[in-house]
Each structure stands twice: as C-alpha cells, then as structure tokens.
Amino acid sequence: MKFISQIENLTPYVAGTPIEVVAEAYGLDRVVKLASNESPLPPFPEVLEVITGKFESLNRYPDAEARQLRAALAERYAVDPGQVILGNGSCELLIWLSLIFLEPGTEAVFSDPTFLVYEEVTLARGARAVKVPLRDFANDLEALAAAVNERTRLVFLTNPHNPTGSYLPAADIAAFAARLPDSCALVLDEAYNEYVEEPDSQGGLELFRANANVIVIRTFSKIYGLCGLRVGYGLCAPAVKEAVDKVRQPFNINTLAQAAALKALSLEKRLEERRSLNLAGRRQLYEGFDGLGIGYIPTQSNFMLVEIDQLAVAAADVPEELLRRGVIVRDGAALGCPGYMRVSAGTPSENEFLLAKLAELK
C-alpha cells in the first residue's frame, strides 16, 4: 500500500479522555470532566423525548437534505435554505470547505495556536498552512491580513478564540474582512457564540449578509448540549452550498441528530438559563483562582486558560495529577499553550471540585 504524501504531515486529533476510562483507571468514585468545552447540562427534556420517538424509524435513511432543520435555521437567521449547510459537527464542515477551496499551491491562513482542525484539513489537501502568532492571547488581525496573498483561499478565524476564549469586536472583524480579496473566503467559526456577553455578538451574521465570501459556522454541540449527536451548521453564499453538496457524503446528518437539533432550535428562549449558568460558573472559577493565587485568561466562552506553572508540581504533570484526583482538564501544551491548562466551566459542584483538587497542588 502507498498512502498519499500528505498523510506524513498529519497527526490524529486527540480528544479528551472519557469519564468512564478515568474512573476505571484510577479507581475513582467521582470524576468531573472539564476538558472538552462541553455543556455541563444534558439536552433539554423535550429534546430527549423527540429523540426516543424516532427510534422505531431507524431502519430508514435520514432526510439527505435535512429539509426541516435547514428550513428552521433559514427562518431563524432570515436567509434562504440554499444558504444553509449542515455537517456532522462543525468539524465536518471544515473538511468540506477545505475540499472545495484548497489544493496544492494554495494557502490557508489562521492564528497560532488555534483550533487544531484548521491545520489538519489544510495539510490534508496539500495546501500550505500559514500560521500567525496570537497577540496578547487574541487573534492578531493586522498580522493575519498581512499574511494573505494571491494564493490564499481560506482564512479561518475563531471568535471567541479557541483555546484562549478571547473575543474580538465585530467592527474589527468587519474591517479585516474588507481587506480580503474576493478570491479568499473568511470562515468565521462561532462555535461558542451563544456564550458571548458582548452587545455586538451577532455582528458576524451582518458581515455574512453583506459579503459573499464570508461563511459563518455555528454548532448545536455546545450550549445546546448535543455533542454526542454532532450537528454543526454554516451560513454561506448559495454557490458555496452548491459546491459543498458536490463533495459531502450523503445522509451525513443522522435521523436522531436532525430531530434533536430541530427541537432544540425551537427552544431558543430556554438558552438564557444556560448562559446564566455559564456566566456564574466563570465568575465562580475566577474567584476561586484569585483565592488560590492562580492566574487565568478572562474569557467570553465556556472555557478558559489557567496558569499551571506556579504550582507545587511541574506544569507538565498537572493534568495527570488532576486526573488522579478525578478531574479531567486539557493540557495547554497540546493546544500550543505550554504552562496553561484549558478548563471548561461546569456546574457549581463541578467547579468547586476542581478548585479543591487544585488547592491540593499548591
């Protein structure tokens, strides 16, 4: 066998360790997972009811066009259904976009560090990954603009940024987008948008409506609590949707995922309670870290970077030491942020548990 040459440049994505695996490995009665930016709350009860109601139809293929969900999203955002794309999580959308925009000799521009999948999908296409360092833990729009040239076909931009949680004002992003050539598409990844407290949080939507080369990506995985079903969506120009349809696999959104996302979308007003829980969780963690004398990066998301190089154990050992104590966090070194760990905001009890275990490492 002979693999394509790009495979040599790729590394598998390493996800957070499941709770069950940690509990069994260390013989623990309680394990708290705060590693993967997940919602600490399960799906709404109404969503669970809809899912169970679909079990008997699983012998049939799902709607390949996800017509009801696309129509509901189109209505929600006042666009045409032909401007909505759906993926098996937003990661699949990134794959499809790389397939329609990137090839050898082209480039994709993104921050460093950032969401690891951007680099993976770029290299898999044989394109060049142009990585621009962050400035003060935030996307450096000036440097990103300077990195764009005639070979650039995609710019990936997270807002709030992953893994730092920093947020850029909508006006700054609009000014950045205005500098991009028509041959380059801006993929504005807003997976954590629903957690943002800033008044301009929906500015990305206006930018998309005004620019055919802007693609906004969001997901049902985060605040809706549907990580396990994998539903991401994007708002884009009709030409982008038509191109994506030519490369995406058929039936890529399963029956349960379509039904759950559709019901969850109808419960939009219920998201406020989850936003409030997340904001309270962030404040609880801020106060706890301040009390322990541990630094952190303020965030506009449901996760934050926390300094771990001032603890009694080496920074490289902190994630493992927390694992032994029943707390799963994400090692910042694996995300390009050595000396930090990334922590999701959990329930009050989960946050308290993390702070107690961190205190043991002081």
Give a topology summary.
Layout: H1 19-26, E1 32-33, H2 45-52, H3 67-77, E2 84-87, H4 90-101, E3 107-112, H5 117-124, E4 128-133, H6 141-147, E5 152-158, H7 170-178, E6 185-189, H8 203-210, E7 214-219, E8 232-235, H9 238-247, H10 255-266, H11 271-292, E9 303-307, H12 318-324, E10 327-328, E11 330-331, E12 340-344, H13 348-359
Parallel strand pairs: 1-10, 3-4, 3-5, 5-6, 6-7
Antiparallel strand pairs: 2-8, 7-8, 9-12, 11-12
How would you describe what is shown here?
It is a single chain. This protein has 362 residues and is of the alpha/beta class. The chain has two domains: 5-42 and 270-359, Aspartate Aminotransferase, domain 1 (Alpha-Beta Complex), CATH 3.90.1150.10; 45-268, Aspartate Aminotransferase, domain 2. The protein has 13 helices and twelve strands. It has helices spanning 19-26, 45-52, 67-77, 90-101, 117-124, 141-147, 170-178, 203-210, 238-247, 255-266, 271-292, 318-324, 348-359; strands at residues 32-33, 84-87, 107-112, 128-133, 152-158, 185-189, 214-219, 232-235, 303-307, 327-328, 330-331, 340-344. The strands form three sheets. It has a seven-stranded mixed sheet, with helices on both faces. Strands 9-12-11 form a three-stranded antiparallel sheet, with no helix packed on it. It has a two-stranded parallel sheet with strand order 1-10. Helix 7 links the parallel strand 5 and strand 6 (185-189). It is globular. The termini are far apart.
